[in-house]
Amino acid sequence: MKRKVTLKQIAKELDVSISTVSKSLRNSLEIGEETRLKVQAFAKFYNYKPNNIALSLKNRKTKTIGIIIPEIVHYFFSTVINGIEQVANENGYSVIICLSDDSFDKEVRNMEMLANGSIDGFIMSLSKETQLKGDFHHITEVINQGMPVVMFDRVTSEILCDKVIIDDKSAAYEAVQSLIDKGRKKIALVTTVDYVSVGKLRTDGYTKALLDNGLPFNENLIIKIEDVDTCEVIIGKLLEDKAIDAVFAVNELFAVTSIKAANKMGLNVPEDLAVIAFTDGIISKYSTPTITTVSQSGKKMGNRAAKMLIERLELEHKDDEEEDENYKTEVIETHLVERESTN
Amino acid sequence: MKRKVTLKQIAKELDVSISTVSKSLRNSLEIGEETRLKVQAFAKFYNYKPNNIALSLKNRKTKTIGIIIPEIVHYFFSTVINGIEQVANENGYSVIICLSDDSFDKEVRNMEMLANGSIDGFIMSLSKETQLKGDFHHITEVINQGMPVVMFDRVTSEILCDKVIIDDKSAAYEAVQSLIDKGRKKIALVTTVDYVSVGKLRTDGYTKALLDNGLPFNENLIIKIEDVDTCEVIIGKLLEDKAIDAVFAVNELFAVTSIKAANKMGLNVPEDLAVIAFTDGIISKYSTPTITTVSQSGKKMGNRAAKMLIERLELEHKDDEEEDENYKTEVIETHLVERESTN
DNA sequence: TTTCAACACTATTACGTTTTCGTAAACCTA
DNA sequence: TAGGTTTACGAAAACGTAATAGTGTTGAAA
């Protein structure tokens, strides 16, 4: 139970000053070889490692990135974290993760807590509640304090900062187009409530694809799921009444649930009903049938977001008051992963 | 772009000492009401918040928990994080997450980095490589420095510390017993390589269940998957040759792959082949047929682990050199979630 | 008048680093 | 030997906070 040794202790033990110890360990030329080697040997023996907190305080940077996401038990978000962690790690950064649980208050609390010196910058995706309220003061505040923020996936145009997104609209367009190309005429959209930014965009893409192909746009073919649990019933109803031949779901869960509902009614996927899901996750790959998806590489998003943040951090460190602030929005390309649920 | 205000700045601005500002903000009685209110008003106006890093340095605790896990894009691990974060959050702790990617070196590097003052304690699950090597010096070292460690799921008996596990052996026993109870006689085990601690234990439970029921133990019915990609072929072969009537898989992926392999050969699940998986994740719930699983509540594990760690942290803070070190191993109960893949 | 307490505030220290500046001693040069 | 330059080290400040230990003034009790 030997506590970590500090410069002070080493200095005392070797009867030199703290400065001498510090300089010796950083191989400063100011220190004579004899002393330097002695100190280094001693430090090595006691396994001296500089205290990160003290360094953070002194350097006024923590080499830590704060991540705030709605939830973590979620394939997409965990792949994003994976991507962030990878780049962060390669650049000597750690990541500290906070979950908003899709709650505005928790998002605000977490941001305030982290903004008080704990981290150098944020990577975040907005909570549902925040998007609903449209209140982004906590983010503005952080940015005004000079702390860089990178938003991904669930972003808002009301905040000026770096962003990483996919082109939800054209990805949705492409998916629906592919259904149309396969002869599907009555395509339902299973989506979330409107205030989630990505949900809105995907709906736009869906609509545009229909109209561009001269297909009728029918409000009744769009169902907005609030609660996953009731999802199956609602979808079942849709299948029964409307004689639809394809489903475009904004996430895997809605897609797999649609398939289950179809199966229960004796419909075959893909023969009677084609299904495409947004987000290429684990469910699509292992469901029966496997599901055609719009791949939305979370890992790549994480990589890019981390890269953008770190670049800004290292840059702003160089010449402090540049204030260029030429914020970028990077768009990650998507593509259709064709599987058994379409033919 | 106003940087965060500090005590010093407030003091200078109001022409009082730093101590006065500090005490005013903490409502000390030593400070006269007039001054106190003036300071508080000023601080509020400039949105003063104490700097976490400075507090950490002063208090010699960071209120941060370090988590080291093999991977994050993994249902079980992300639920554990969710559980940890929840309890941590309730107790004013943050979590900083590092991924070992199942690599020994990365695990060591991450631990060393975090151990240098960044966190107050660890919660971790061993990487495969670490378990294979059997080298735990990095963990011993951290513990010797007085930093508490809680291990979960993938643990080792070679390290004395708090642990949270499930009773893998008896959970496996129970699962296999349930298959036997349903009349299955030729039960295959699809597992991982041996050095993963939990894999070994689950195999033991499987074996014991067979023997206790007077069923023959057949080495050939146990297949150890090294690489998920080759899994389907191997399982297919097993089904062909051995005329088995049930599969007990140590994770969801192996289970769903077994089902796919069976389907391809025209076998029906559960009629011709019953399947049980370890770990109740998202795949089991949404696969077709849904899969009977051994629920292994990651969230609960996370909750317990965080609780144990925080309790130890707060305790050791009270009377520093108690050295009781009565380490506990908590066992999280499991239960069988019966679904369509067994009957 | 002395003493002592209460009041209202400040100085200092400590946490662990790094770095700037300073300085004594030794050496070199003319 | 006076003056200058190296060499080798130390003191102190700085990062931001909080707690302990003062300090000086006032007023009241002895």
Plain-language structure description:
The structure is a homodimer of 343-residue chains. With 343 residues, chain A is of the alpha/beta class. Chain A folds into 3 domains: 7-50, no CATH class; 58-165 and 299-332, Rossmann fold; 168-296, 3-Layer(aba) Sandwich (Rossmann fold), CATH 3.40.50.2300. In chain A, 47% of the residues lie in helices and 16% in strands. Chain A is built from 14 helices and 12 strands. The first copy, chain A, has helices at residues 7-14, 18-25, 33-45, 52-59, 75-90, 104-115, 128-133, 137-144, 168-181, 197-212, 231-242, 252-264, 282-286, 298-318; strands at 64-69, 94-99, 121-124, 149-152, 162-166, 187-192, 222-225, 246-249, 274-278, 292-295, 329-332, 335-337. In chain A, the strands form 2 sheets. In chain A, strands 2-1-3-4-5-11 form a 6-stranded parallel β-sheet, sandwiched between helices. In chain A, strands 7-6-8-9-10-12 form a 6-stranded mixed β-sheet, with helices on both faces. In chain A, helix 1 (7-14) packs across helix 2 (18-25) and helix 11 (231-242) packs across helix 12. Chain A is elongated, with a radius of gyration of 26 Å. The model of chain A has no long low-confidence stretch (mean pLDDT 92). Chains A and B meet through helix 4, helix 5, strand 2, helix 6 and helix 12 of A and helix 4, helix 5, strand 2, helix 6 and helix 12 of B. Chain A binds a DNA duplex (30 and 30 nucleotides) through helix 2 and helix 4.
